[in-house]
User: Which sequence fits this backbone?
């Protein structure tokens, strides 16, 4: 057992699992926002953007997911 582990004591599962669960929850909200914005853009009646803008939207969506 190393010296630093002996000083800190055993690590609680709450300290290990808590940030992971919170991160998963926040990531789910962010993914929902990306999908919502994509659906809103895609269902727009007046879409007359250039091809560069369409590629940019698809790229940002892919990176966001």
Assistant:
């Amino acid at each position: 057992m190393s010296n630093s582990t002996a000083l800190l004591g055993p690590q609680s599962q709450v300290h290990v699992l808590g940030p992971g669960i919170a991160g998963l929850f926040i990531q789910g909200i962010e993914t929902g926002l990306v999908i919502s914005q994509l659906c809103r853009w895609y269902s727009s009646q007046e879409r007359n953007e250039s091809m560069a803008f369409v590629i940019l939207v698809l790229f940002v969506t892919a990176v966001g997911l």
